[in-house]
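G., the chain you wanted modeled:
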Amino acid sequence: MADDLAHLLFEGAHRDRTHGVWRRAISDRAFAHRPGLSAAERTALSYDRLRLLNDTLDDPLRFAADPHRLAALHEWIGPVDGGLTTVASIHYNLFLGSLVDHDQAGRDLSAFSSLRSTGTFLCTELEHGNDVAALETVAVLDRTSGGFHLHTPTPGAQKFMPNTTLAGGPKTAVVAARLVVDEEDQGVFLFLTPLSDESGHLPGVTVRRLPERTGTPVDHALTSFDHVWLPRQALLEADHGRLAPDGTLTSNLGNRRKRFLRSINRVTMGKLCMSAGTLGMTRAALTIAVRYAHSRLIAGPRAGERIPVAAHRSHHSRLLDGLATAYAMTFLHRTVVDRFAAHTEEDREEVERLAAIAKGWITWQARSITTECRERCGAQGLFPANGISDLPANIEGGITAEGDNLVIWVKAASEMVFGHRPQAPEATMPAGDLTDLSFLRGLLAQAEALWQTRARTALREGPSGDPVGRWNVTSAAALEMVSAHARLQAADAFIAAAGRAADPRTRDLLRSLCRLFLLRQIREHTGDLLADGHLTADQVRSLPKTLDTTVADLAPHMMTLVDAFDLPVELLSSIPIASGGTVVRTMENAGQGPA
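Predicted structure as C-alpha cells:
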C-alpha cells in the first residue's frame, strides 16, 4: 500500500523523471547528514553539493524552465541541507530562470549552466523589502558607450541579503535596478552583472558579509555598486520592456509597476520552490518522529512490560494530525504547480495569488508540524545528529523568503474581499454525516464564505476618509477568509487525489486521513457553523468522538503513511533515531569513550 500512496504523492507516471533523479542524488554519501560542522564548513559544503547536483543535469537551462522538476528538487534537498536549498533556489530559479524568461540572443550562458560562475539575485534593499517596488538602485544609460552605470545612491539602497561573498567561487548576479534614460525613470528592470572572479570582487562592487542568521548558514551579505559600467546586453529584455538604440523604451505593459512585476516574475516560482523545500522538511520530520515512536519503548501497564510510545493516543494523535496535514500540503502543492505550469495571461493574477496563498499556508504548517515532531522525539530530538532539530529554524527562511507570509496574505486578502466568489454550496444541511467528506468540505466552504461576508461588512462600515483605518477593521476577517480558502483548496486537492487511487484499500485509507484533516479544520468554526444553522448541537457534541474514532482507525497505518514519503534508506540509516537507535548508542558503536 505504501507504494500506491507514493505513486499518488509523487505524480504517478512522471515520478521517476520528476522526483527519482533527486531521490537518487541525496542517497549518495556526499549528501549524508553531517552534524558538527562550523558555519563556514556548512556553507562550503552547500556549494560543493550544488555542483554535484548540477552534474546530474543534461541541460540546466531547460531544467530552470520546468516548474515540476524545479519544485521537486527543493522537496528532496530541503531535509538534507537548508543552505543547499537556498543557493539552489537562487541559482536555478531566480538567476537562470530570469535569464531563460528574457531574450537570450547573443548571450553566452555556459559559465552559469556549468557553474563556473554561480548565479545570485539582487532585488530587495536594506530599506526596501516589502516595498521593493520603491527600490533606489539605478542603471543609468550612457549614450556615449551605449552601456549603463550601475550605482547604489544611498546606504539604504544596498542590496540585502543575497549570497554575494566569495564563498563557493566566482559569482554573477541578476540585479534589479531603475533604468534611467536622460534623467527619466523608466521603471525597474534586471541587469546581468558580474560580481567576482577567481581573484576576488570586481572593481566597484562592495560586499559586506552579514552576521550569521538562524537556520543553516548561507553567505548572506550587503552589496553595493559604485558606478559599475555594464555593456548594453546586460539589460534583460522581453516584451514587457525593450530599449531601442535611440534610448526609446517599448513595452506591451502600460505602467512601470506592471513592468517591474513582470521583470521579477520568477519570484512566483520562488514561492513554489520555498514551499516545496519546507514540504520535504515536513515529511522528513514526520518520518523520523513516527519511526522513533515505534522503536522508543516505555513502561507498559503490566510489570516488566515494555510498549512503544506510539501506542499512546496522546502521542500518535498529534503525529497523525501532522500526517493528515502533510498529505494535504503535498496534494495542494501538486495542484498549484500544475496550474502555474499551464497558466496563461488570462489567469496569471489568479494563479500568482494561489501560489502566494499556498506558500503561506504550507510553510506555516511546516513550522508547526516540524516543531511538534521535534517535541515528540523528546531529548533525542534536540541533537542535530538526529536530523530534526534544525528543521524548524530552516523553515523560518522559507516563511520570509520570496514574500513574507503575512504580507503576501494581506495582499491576497485585499484582492479577495470583493474579487473572489467562494465555492460554498447554497445550503449545507445540518442532517449531514460528520464522516462524509463532501459534507465536511461544504462546512469548510461555508466558513470561507462567512469570513468573506464579515470582511465585506467591515470594509463598507469602516471609517470614511481613512483608508488605513478601514483596512484595519477589515484585515482580521479578511485574513481568516484567506486561511479558510487555503485549507479548502488543500481539501479539494486531497479529495481528488483519494479519488485517483486505484486500490480500494489505498482509497479508503486516504479518505480516512482526509476526514481527519477536515474534522480538524472545521473544529475551530463550529460556533459559527452552529449559529448559522449548518451544524446541529448534537453534531457539535459528537465531533470529539468522531475525531477520536478516526484517529483510532488510522493509528495502525502510521508506518505505512510515512513509508510512502519514500525517503532513501541511505538517508534514514545516517539518522540514529530513524534507524532504531539513539545518539548514545551510535557513540557506543563508534567506540567513543569518556570526554
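The longest strand covers residues 171-181.

Shout if anything looks off.
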